[in-house]
Amino acid sequence: MKAVAESRAGAVRPEPRRGGPLRIVWAVVSRFWLVPVVVAAWEAAARAAASIDFPPPSAIVLRMRELWLSGPPTRLFLSDDAIADLLPGLGRMFAGWLLASLVGVVAGIALGRAATAAHYVEPLIHFARAVPPPMLITLFVLLFRSSTQTQLAVIVFGVIWPVLLNSMDGARSVERGYLDTAAVFGLGRRERLLRIVLPAAAPKIFAGLRLSLSLALILMVISELVGSTDGIGYELLQAQRGFDSPGVWATILLLGLLGYVLNAVFVLVERRVLSWHVRGTRTT
Amino acid sequence: MTGARLVRGAVGVAGFLAVAELAVRSGYLDERLLPPPTVVVREAVLLVADPEFTSGLVGTVSRWLTGLALAIAIAVPAGVLLGTVAWAERATRPLLEFLRPIPSVALIPLAILLIPDDFLMKISVIVYASLWPILINTMYGLREVDPLAKDSLRSFGFGRLAVLCRVSLPSTAPFIVTGVRLSAGIALILAISAELLAGGAEGLGVFVIRAGSGNRTDLVIAAALWAGTAGVLSNTALVAAERRLFRWHHVRSGAVT
Amino acid sequence: MLKVVNLAHAYGDQQVLAGIDLSVGDGELVSVVGPSGCGKSTLLRSIAGLIKPSHGQVLINGVPVEQTPDDLAVVFQDYSRSLFPWLSAAGNVALPLRRKGMSRRARREAALAALDQVGLAGSADKYPFEMSGGMQQRVAIARALAYRPALLLMDEPFASVDAQTREDLEDLVLAVRANHNMSILLITHDIDESVYVGDRVVVLTRSPATVTESLTVDLPSPRDQIATRELEAFVRLRSEIGRLVRGRPDLVGEQ
Amino acid sequence: MLKVVNLAHAYGDQQVLAGIDLSVGDGELVSVVGPSGCGKSTLLRSIAGLIKPSHGQVLINGVPVEQTPDDLAVVFQDYSRSLFPWLSAAGNVALPLRRKGMSRRARREAALAALDQVGLAGSADKYPFEMSGGMQQRVAIARALAYRPALLLMDEPFASVDAQTREDLEDLVLAVRANHNMSILLITHDIDESVYVGDRVVVLTRSPATVTESLTVDLPSPRDQIATRELEAFVRLRSEIGRLVRGRPDLVGEQ
Amino acid sequence: GQASGNGLEKTTLKVGALPIPDPAALFIAKAKGFFKEEGLEVETSIIAGGAAALPKIKNGSLDISQTNYVSTFLAVSKGEKIKLIADAYQAAPNTFNLMVPKDSPIRTAADLKGKTVAVNTLTNIGTLAVTATLKVAGLKADDVTFKEYPFPEMGAALTQGQVDAAWVTEPFITATQSQFGFRKLADTMTGQTADLPIAGWMATDEFAKNNPKTLAAFQRALAKGQQLAANDRKEVEAIVPTYTSIKQETAAVITLGTFPTTLNETRLQRVADLMLEYGYLTGKLDVKTLLAGASTP
Ligand SMILES: Nc1ncnc2c1ncn2[C@@H]1O[C@H](COP(=O)(O)OP(=O)(O)OP(=O)(O)O)[C@@H](O)[C@H]1O
Ligand SMILES: Nc1ncnc2c1ncn2[C@@H]1O[C@H](COP(=O)(O)OP(=O)(O)OP(=O)(O)O)[C@@H](O)[C@H]1O
Ligand SMILES: [Mg+2]
Ligand SMILES: [Mg+2]
């Protein structure tokens, strides 16, 4: 009985009302209450363990401040290190992710709709995505003249698969009714892809994009392990080489925070783009 | 997987190899740095006779499959939970989104410290990384379920769990399988990367460390060839399973098969 | 059996139902007619507990329903989306019977029998996408009938079938109702049908809908497709309902 | 305009159409009636080039069609699956007009006008899932009419609307046809409707379907909902078609 | 740990080693049965590097691992509790060279100012040795940019111009010389770094404390292998292809370092002092405190 009552509550959610300070407080609390709990538990556990490999979060945060937030207020406290090291890497990450997204969506939709063409390249795709990026670096170092190009290639090559696969799948499984309708109204190829297949596949594409966004952070780090002179991965490398355990944790924490922020922005954008979808499947 | 499809796939692979061969032979790519495909393929075939390699391959593959199976076992229920229980999703999202972008290179040293057993350590790393595609695809898939289909069952008085099992899950299944296909690739990558970063007694990654240290790029690439082949095979198996299980999905959506 | 008291509903700020009062007695069949978009399906969803009305109450046997009432079956207007594409026709019909604690075999048998009743004996193992619109709709009807609910809600259940099949299905519903004492609420656009099958016909106004009239159908039972429709009372009733539903000059042709 | 020659189709080994011959003249409206599941939708999909028939030919203006013919519009039976959920009603109607090389504004205006004609003036910015079944169906009709095709195929386009709206829509289709010289093939289950709107009524047998009869409707134009239906010729025709369609004892009630 | 008749605390040892010539003695000792003679069973596994092996000895998934001294001293300075239990490998002339492409304008170490140098690991022997070489040429570490590349990728990085010079060891020196005609710019193991100790064997403090007899047995057996390696290059050439991917014919031609037979505190202290001089360590490190047990020659 209880399950049924809950199911009703889930389906018949009252219309969200905006504004009201209480609501905002509630929104924040319901989203973040678990975070302080986990951090506190972590702090306690780390203090109890007292191992140099597992510094408590308080120590990590201090190290983070020292590394990246010891600059002048005029620069938002960003240190030289932060500006010189973090920004270029993030720039490469975004460039790589955007490029991969673009190529992934375009190629995915094209291959999703062109079955025969897909048959030719599919084994290659599944082959390529199973090769570990560290092993690919050999190839990319050979193909490109600058480290930046190599790094970009590693990022693109590493993150493109979720977008590509999900786009292919999405484009493949568009509701037949939509396609038939487009066909009888004589929509051209371009129009059909752009106005029917793309929106119909959008939910899957977004799942892929969201996956690849955090993957991009990971690949950014991996790409900076070879031949780099800046970036979060480089910082991680230096911290590891220097047996600087708080430093290693600081980069991990930074990556996590970045990941959270990126994802939050992404979800915001997705909500806008897929509003029809969200509303269409929520309201019954 | 029809005959024509197999042939086309083979043609695609052959075409790629031919282009690569040409690129190397014509000097566009440096032959001294990158052995041509013919050489690599020959090495790869010869590797079958190398017991060190084959036992490594078996080890890697077994860790890969174990890790993938565990990832599915964890991620599908978790995805269902987060996809259906809004407050749980809201509360855990900051943590999950925090954990997702932590790279294996940072994770593996910590994993080694925490998990003394080499096998378990590698499995954990594989599971950690390959969890996400299944989790996210499950969550997105649940959102896609036609609300009317759910209402249909609810109207017959079925509870939340029954609706989940009998409507939401079947209709999400194709979405989940796409996630599994993605995860299979990632799990394989991690199975090898864990060995590359942590070493070990055997494995494809260990083989690569050895080949690299001995300046045997041909062997490194031959090993990569095997990794890729494993990826293609697993994908083929998953696609075949998908086709059998979700015929309704393919036919109904007019999927180009 | 069913009592709807002052039910009102709004989607966002669009008022759709504005105080509906309605009741269906034990074993009664009440037809509901009203213009397209007036809120009939919304009413049905409220009764089924699928949406929470903004106002008012739904009582079943005197008890206010907060969630989907027990022992209920619904035939949705959008039948094609309410069938499960991964199940065959028989599978779709058999699925709800799990709640009745029937064995696998008994479920299958009941499903086949119900499919046979709606004229789909040969299509039990077809999947929804292999069936025509009318066949899918009949699967949805078979699913509801096989369930033998105490209360059956149907939203234009015969919209996609030909005249002959429609009449057969009407008679089928009447027969099942009589044998199993179901209470039925049937939404329809066919005024003749509303009279033919109904013990009572409820006419709704345009949105925001209220009940214009609730007419008792005083025709002898069992009904007969030819004899009943020829009765003077039948003709009078259908004209009256026709008049009630019509008379809104809201569509402008492009003459 | 349209000529269907000996068209046959089978799904797998189930023969559905068994040699259909049919033609629709320029500006003609041909109604098709036939039992549920006989193959009407299949016929329509073949004409629209959406499935390749196993046998026979579809000719448009004498040219065999291999793909979807140009200047065609279709109202599908499964309207809810043919509306794009990511577009509003107006967006759905306006989308195909891109092909006509109309400006964004002209498209929007044409869409609004068409929605107005089907009685949805106030719902232009609603999304499909915010509309009732009948409203969705009318959006699909508006989309086809706004497109002003040379050939219009409609599969039970008025199944989900009330009697009054149905009559208005019938008249709307007749008016648009007259003004723009469309040729129309209309599948319906309502025998009265098939006669009222049709220049000719084609009756199909059960599956595997063949053409039983093709009756010319010899009624004066323009038609009028009251006057036409009272004509003796109308009553005679509908009875005849009724007889042709019926007479298959295939549904067994559970009396 | 399973005890045994001859008083060993542990008879099976898990030992990590890199697939390069440095740990040759271990494999010789194993092949010749020296460990067996001591009642020890040695299980070797491949490690990804000294730093990567550290967590493994700490959590006990390895008992003993190969390490390089620079890493070890750095780790110790950060508070890691490690003992060195045997020496393994020491630089010889032309074992670690700075290489440039054949037609590179860089002629001497002094020309490296403002250039990019590839090393296999940042903040390690490579950077240390190059810095020492730069010092002779009047440059400092800051005058060049170090980039980390795995040895196998250095050939490509150098040909593609991603770096200007690369710090390379065997078998890559020989390979790149013969394949690409790379030119030796400088031998980084001269002067200050001549005969620099490179690699040794480590265990955790805890392990060393709890297993003194086992360690002694291991040291004795390893020393025998080390002796063979030090005295007979043929032994090394024969064993290297068995645990690395280096081919027999390559093993025959590459330049090898030396295999010291004692764990000599003074020699190792040199490394720590160099590290202090170049800022790798912030304070003096007394190497003597890190040595576990006496190693009998
Ligand atoms: N999910 C929704 N969100 C917003 N508005 C809705 C929603 N569902 C229905 N409506 C609106 O509510 C009104 C009534 O819809 P409903 O489906 O109840 O009509 P109906 O009487 O069943 O019509 P029909 O006979 O055409 O099926 C319509 O105007 C419709 O636009
Ligand atoms: N995709 C399909 N695969 C297999 N069989 C199909 C498919 N579509 C239709 N059929 C079968 O073909 C026959 C004719 O279907 P069709 O949809 O053309 O009927 P219809 O005349 O439109 O019926 P209705 O009036 O109920 O819509 C039916 O028996 C149906 O089971
Ligand atoms: Mg409705
Ligand atoms: Mg049909």
From TrEMBL, chain A:
It holds the Pfam family BPD_transp_1. GO terms for cellular component: plasma membrane. Keywords: Cell membrane, Membrane, Transmembrane, Transmembrane helix, Transport. It is a multi-pass membrane protein. It comes from the Bacteria. Belongs to the binding-protein-dependent transport system permease family. This is ABC-type nitrate/sulfonate/bicarbonate transport system, permease component.
Automatic annotation (TrEMBL), chain B:
The chain crosses the membrane at residues 64-86, 98-115, 121-140, 186-207, 219-241. GO terms for cellular component: plasma membrane. PROSITE patterns: ABC_TM1. Belongs to the binding-protein-dependent transport system permease family. Its main location: membrane. It holds the Pfam family BPD_transp_1. Keywords: Cell membrane, Membrane, Transmembrane, Transmembrane helix, Transport. Residues 57-238 form the ABC transmembrane type-1 domain. InterPro entries: MetI-like, MetI-like_sf. It is found in: Cell membrane. One of its GO terms (biological process) is transmembrane transport. PANTHER family: ABC TRANSPORTER PERMEASE PROTEIN MJ0413-RELATED (PTHR30151:SF0), ALKANE SULFONATE ABC TRANSPORTER-RELATED, MEMBRANE SUBUNIT (PTHR30151). This is NitT/TauT family transport system permease protein. It is a multi-pass membrane protein.
TrEMBL record, chains C, D:
Residues 2-231 form the ABC transporter domain. PANTHER family: ALIPHATIC SULFONATES IMPORT ATP-BINDING PROTEIN SSUB (PTHR42788:SF13), TAURINE IMPORT ATP-BINDING PROTEIN-RELATED (PTHR42788). It comes from Sinosporangium album. GO terms for molecular function: ATP binding; ATP hydrolysis activity. InterPro entries: AAA+_ATPase (IPR003593), ABC_transporter-like_ATP-bd (IPR003439), ABC_transporter-like_CS (IPR017871), ABC_transporter_ATP-bind (IPR050166), P-loop_NTPase (IPR027417). This is NitT/TauT family transport system ATP-binding protein. SUPFAM superfamilies: P-loop containing nucleoside triphosphate hydrolases (SSF52540). Keywords: ATP-binding, Nucleotide-binding, Transport.
